[in-house]
Amino acid sequence: MHVLVLNSGSSSIKYQLLDMDTRSRLATGLVDRIGESSGHLVHNGEAVGADGFADHEAGLRAVLDTFAARGPALDRVVAVGHRVVHGGSRFERAELVDDEVEAAIEELIPLAPLHNPANLEGIRVARRAFPTLPHVAVFDTAFHQTLPPAAYTYAVPAEWDVRKYGFHGTSAAYVSRKAAELLGRSYEEVNTIVLHLGNGASATAVRGGRSVDTSMGLTPLAGLVMGTRSGDLDPGVLPYVARLTGLTLDEIDSALNRESGLRGLAGANDLREVWRKVDDGDRDARLAMDVYTHRIRGYIGNYYAVLGHVDAIVFTAGVGENDPRTRELSLTGLDRLGITIDPARNTAHSARARTISKDGSEVTVLVIPTDEELEIAEQTVDTADVGRTPPH
Ligand code: ADP
């Protein structure tokens, strides 16, 4: 039983073909710079000759041609899973796509103007390419629909109709379930703080398999310091800067999303580069890492209080999985909370899920590689109901 997973961005389509009987990856690839003449396609690590793709339709057609020419064959695909960034309050779980679901994703475009249009375009193109297969939309926000009102309500005039939604839900669902497995306990009885630290970064408090608070908000700009996004700041900064500089709201929004975070503080958004600068004695870079890890510690304390009892802290995504210095700094001084990292375990190289806390640490600290595509494929199989053998 094979599942095709599509992640359609504004100018790219990332794809994976997964065998759900063995949970293995059969193919992975990317079409990028859609709409430009320089776009190209990489299939299983190999560049496939191409001279650009006019639109998503042309991009997906090139992907299907490549599967036909180079394999593997797509004849065992039973369903197509689509990543959709914003599901608003409408989508509490993954959903089988029909015209009504497409229309609902379209209605949510104001909440995710950069992402939902591209996600939707990918769905439309793929439904035309695979008209007989079930298509499932898997939402980044869905896992956080269990947040209680106290956690998702903003203290602003009610008629603004804004609230926290949260993102990275597919990743948080995957790694928090894995954490329970690694602890050898049932998902329902384990409390976890998930630290998803990639280019985008978020913290999520998971109580017994349900998200109860998360650091991103109405948009993915809130919370932790990120590669180029500011994370939390006093909302009063916006009118202050607007008045002082004459920048428009759109310009400030763009600066908060693209020129802030580590890039704003240290001039680089990749943690590896920031650390190189720190090692060269760059004080701005040093401050950037202090701010970055101070914010993470603050969220750990916050979610410790929200959960009351924490069984595991999980580090995941590019930084969380690969950067022992950031992990160590983020947990410094938290011994009194029962969080004690083991320096040798923390610095040992491994691509596998592993424990990095000391034996006897009350809170187990884990590094778990996230796998959003596998989680999308799992939810696709469950939602499309293709996993069951049909009765004779
Ligand atoms: P995205 O949010 O785009 O999915 P990833 O989860 O792939 O991003 O994370 C990308 C980030 O991970 C990079 O920008 C880089 O800062 C960080 N990263 C990757 N490898 C390492 C490493 N070995 N050490 C420190 N940071 C790393």
TrEMBL record:
Binding positions for substrate per the UniProt entry: R83
Class in the EC hierarchy, top level: transferase
GO cellular component term of the entry, any: cytoplasm
Active site positions, chain numbering: D140
Annotated positions binding ATP: K14, H196, L197, G198, N199, G200, D270, L271, R272, G318, V319, G320, E321, N322
Positions that bind Mg(2+): N7, E372
UniProt entry keywords in alphabetical sequence: ATP-binding, Cytoplasm, Kinase, Magnesium, Metal-binding, Nucleotide-binding, Transferase
Cofactor, free-text remark: Mg(2+). Can also accept Mn(2+).
Catalytic activity entry: acetate + ATP = acetyl phosphate + ADP
PROSITE patterns given in the database record: ACETATE_KINASE_1 (PS01075), ACETATE_KINASE_2 (PS01076)
Annotated GO biological process: acetate metabolic process; acetyl-CoA biosynthetic process
CDD domains assigned: ASKHA_NBD_AcK_PK
Primary subcellular site in the record, as a coarse category: cytoplasm
Documented EC number(s): 2.7.2.1
Cofactor(s) of this protein: Mg(2+); Mn(2+)
UniProt-recorded Gene Ontology molecular function terms: acetate kinase activity; ATP binding; magnesium ion binding
Gene3D superfamilies listed in its UniProt record: 3.30.420.40
InterPro entries registered for this protein in UniProt: Ac/propionate_kinase (IPR004372), Aliphatic_acid_kin_short-chain (IPR000890), Aliphatic_acid_kinase_CS (IPR023865), ATPase_NBD (IPR043129)
A Pfam match: Acetate_kinase
Family stated for the protein in its record: Belongs to the acetokinase family.
Subunit and interaction comment: Homodimer.
Primary role: Catalyzes the formation of acetyl phosphate from acetate and ATP. Can also catalyze the reverse reaction.
Protein name per Swiss-Prot or TrEMBL: Acetate kinase
Organism for this UniProt entry: Acrocarpospora pleiomorpha
